[in-house]
Structures are given as structure tokens and as C-alpha cells.
Specification:
Elements: H1 2-8, H2 11-14, E1 28-29, H3 41-54, H4 66-76, E2 83-87, H5 90-101, E3 107-112, H6 116-124, E4 128-133, H7 143-153, E5 157-161, H8 173-182, E6 186-190, E7 211-216, H9 218-222, E8 228-232, H10 234-241, H11 251-262, H12 264-286, E9 291-293, E10 300-305, H13 310-319, E11 322-323, E12 325-326, E13 337-341, H14 345-363
Parallel strand pairs: 1-11, 3-4, 3-5, 5-6, 6-7
Antiparallel strand pairs: 2-8, 7-8, 9-10, 10-13, 12-13
Helix pairs in contact: 3-11, 4-11, 5-6, 7-8, 13-14
This protein binds pyridoxal-5'-phosphate.
Length: 364
């Protein structure tokens, strides 16, 4: 059996480790950039009614997701004339992009530390991956290094998360424009954290021949639905759409996402609360000895602990009932770095309290 598997599974797949999601058990869950707020009662009732009256489980979904697409265009402000493609989460869209532009010797380029899916999907699809380090001190784009790597590797696909995960910062917009102008292939600006910043390339997406903007509803509060989208010139979108499996957006996602966007105000109010809590959490972290938080435009905060303490503090936090993300060991620039998702005020207080205890325990 083992020999058969080794004979037939592609070596690049065998060489990967599967994407690991820890079981939160009963812990306070601040590890995955989820919106901590549920739906108000009246919206829940509208949702039930919609599911019973509108959703036909025996039928295939609308392959073009027409009603949802129209709602998304209007709600997110997709520019007039732009094409739009939907994915089962933006992860699936990254995969479609790789299937469309990939091939032997073709390169995906991004910056590091960055979103792990770009590298993983390059691996699945047999593409080469190049990760250009961000600046050490502040995680800004190292523009000369990126331009040099672009020139050397001629990437078919270049991803920039804006704001970046796991560092939380927004790259300088002028630097991003310089990268778009220099790139020979397609540049995808991944705006997964758009609800938590005012900056966006979506209004300018048609100003460049090689730019597409990707969004998701996950971080806004619909992570369980799995809906991502890609917007830009119709000439690109039409080709990428050929790699989309028919019916990739199921009937439940189409109906519920459309309903949620009709009540966009509920989610705007929640994301505004998260932004406010982010400021409060950052200020508290800044005042703690031995903790250095990095400014964030997303719904999480990256922070560095004292030398050699990161893993111990992460473990102690878990013992205090709080699950965050340990990034120590994931990249040389992230030594002793942890990432906390902004939760409700109560969750954030519980986290801060646990962190105080964990830092004190690590010092004694
Ligand atoms: C979370 C995240 C995504 C994935 O979003 P899904 O739509 O849930 O697949 C994409 N890009 C970045 C940078 C993210 O942090």
C-alpha cells in the first residue's frame, strides 16, 4: 500500500504537509480571523424564512449566481464594466488562477511572511514559488528587492495581500502601483481584510491591464459560507472562469450571502466594533512589558514577545483558555511572534488577562 502510494502520488504533493487547523475545544477562539458576532434575532428569522421559501435543494444552483453577483457588484462597488468571478472562498480562486496561468516553469511570486495559500497552491499545481522577504523592521515592501525578483523570475502571477496577513500592515500604495507597472504577468491584490481598512485597489482595478482584485466575505462575518470573488477586466475573468467547476457556489451560499448583503448594515456595524476594539487592544498590548505589537489595518494584531518566549507564552495562553496563532518557526522574520484575532470586548479582556499571566509565568 505504502509503495503504491509512493509510486503514484506526485512527489510535490507528498512533499507538502496538509493544512492544519487546530481543534479549539472549549478555548476562546482568537486564532482564525473570524468575526466574533452572531446574527441578530430578526435577521436569523429572515434567514430561516428565505431558506424554506426560496431554496430548492433538489435543483442545481444558478451556475452564474446571477442574483448574488448583482448584489455583490452593488454592495462592494465593483466598477462598471468589470468582470466578476465567484469562488468557494478566495482560496478556490487562488487555485483557479494557478490552473489558468500555471504550467511547467511558471512562477508565482509573493512576499514573506505572507499568506501561506499562495505557496501551497503553487505546490499543488506544479508551479514554482518565489517569496521575497518584507523589510525586517516594519514589514514594509522591500520595493527594490521585489522589482529585482520580478525582473529575474518573470512571474506569471504575483500576489500581494493588502492588508497583509500575518503582519496586518498595509503596503505603501505607491509601492504597490510600482509593482503592478513592473510585473510582466498578472498581479492579484488580495483584499481579504477590506472591511477593516479604508484603502482599496478595487476602484482602480480597470486602470491597469494586469491587475485583478480579490475579496472574500469570510472576514466580514461569513467565513462558514465560503464565498470569495475576483474582479477586473472581463478579458481576464472570462478565461479564468473556464477553470471554475460548474455550480461551485451552492444554493445555500447563494441565498444566504445575498440575504446578508441586503442587510449589509448589520455587518458594517460589527466590523466597526472590531475596528474600535483593535485600537483598544493595540493600546493595551503596547503598554505591556515584553510585548511589541505591530500596527494593523486588519482584524488581528501581530505581536512579538521577548526573545525565546513566544512558544512558551502561546502554550501558557492555551492553558489559560485562549487559543491564538503561534507564528514562531513559520518564517525567520517571525521569531517569537504570535497573532491574535480581535474578538468581542469580553474575549479581548480575557486574552489580555491571560497574556499578563502568561508573560509573568514565562519570566519567573
Ligand atoms: C483569510 C484569507 C483569505 C482566504 O479567504 P477565504 O475566502 O476564506 O478562502 C485569502 N487571503 C488572505 C490574505 C487571507 O488572510
Amino acid at each position: 500500500m505504502k509503495e503504491l502510494v509512493e509510486q503514484w502520488v506526485r512527489p510535490e504533493i507528498r512533499g507538502l504537509s496538509a493544512y492544519h487547523v487546530p481543534d479549539p475545544g472549549g478555548l476562546i477562539k482568537l486564532d482564525a480571523m473570524e468575526n466574533p458576532y452572531g446574527w441578530p434575532e430578526d435577521l436569523r428569522r429572515a434567514w430561516w424564512a428565505e431558506l424554506f421559501q426560496q431554496v430548492e435543494m433538489n435543483r442545481y444552483p444558478d451556475p452564474a449566481a446571477g442574483a448574488l453577483s448583482a448584489r455583490l457588484r452593488q454592495s462592494l462597488g465593483v466598477p462598471e464594466g468589470a468582470g466578476l468571478l465567484l469562488g468557494n472562498g478566495s482560496d478556490e480562486i487562488i487555485q483557479m488562477l494557478a490552473l489558468t496561468l500555471g504550467g511547467p516553469g511558471r512562477v508565482i511570486l509573493s512576499v514573506e511572511p505572507g499568506f501561506v495559500m499562495y505557496r501551497m497552491i503553487a505546490g499543488f499545481t506544479g508551479m514554482d514559488y518565489v517569496g521575497v522577504p518584507l523589510r525586517e523592521e516594519d514589514f514594509r515592501l522591500d520595493l527594490p528587492a521585489v522589482l529585482e525578483a520580478v525582473e529575474r523570475h518573470h512571474p506569471a502571477l504575483l500576489f500581494l495581500a493588502y492588508p497583509n496577513n500575518p503582519t496586518g500592515n498595509l503596503f505603501d500604495a505607491e509601492d504597490v502601483r510600482a509593482v503592478i507597472r513592473a510585473a510582466p504577468g498578472l498581479v492579484v491584490v488580495d483584499e481579504a481584510y477590506a472591511p477593516f481598512t479604508d484603502a482599496s485597489f478595487l476602484p482602480q482595478v480597470l486602470d491597469y491591464d494586469n491587475l485583478l482584485v480579490m475579496r472574500t466575505l469570510s472576514k466580514m462575518g461569513l467565513a462558514g459560507l465560503r464565498l470569495g470573488l475576483l474582479a477586473g477586466a472581463e478579458a481576464w475573468i472570462r478565461e479564468i472562469d473556464k477553470t471554475r467547476l460548474p455550480y461551485n457556489i451552492n444554493v445555500l451560499t447563494q441565498a444566504v450571502a445575498e440575504l446578508a448583503l441586503r442587510h449589509r448594515g448589520v455587518f458594517d456595524e460589527q466590523t466597526a466594533r472590531i475596528r474600535e476594539q483593535r485600537g483598544r487592544l493595540f493600546a493595551r498590548l503596547e503598554r505591556m512589558d515584553g510585548i511589541r505589537p505591530y500596527p494593523s489595518q486588519a482584524n488581528f494584531i501581530l505581536f512579538r514577545t521577548a526573545d525565546g518566549r513566544g512558544a512558551g507564552i502561546f502554550q501558557a495562553l492555551k492553558e489559560h483558555g485562549v487559543l491564538i496563532k503561534n507564528l514562531h518557526g513559520s518564517h525567520p522574520r517571525l521569531a517569537d511572534c504570535l497573532r491574535v484575532t480581535v474578538g468581542t470586548p469580553e474575549e479581548n479582556d480575557a486574552f489580555l488577562e491571560a497574556l499578563r499571566g502568561s508573560v509573568a509565568a514565562a519570566e519567573s
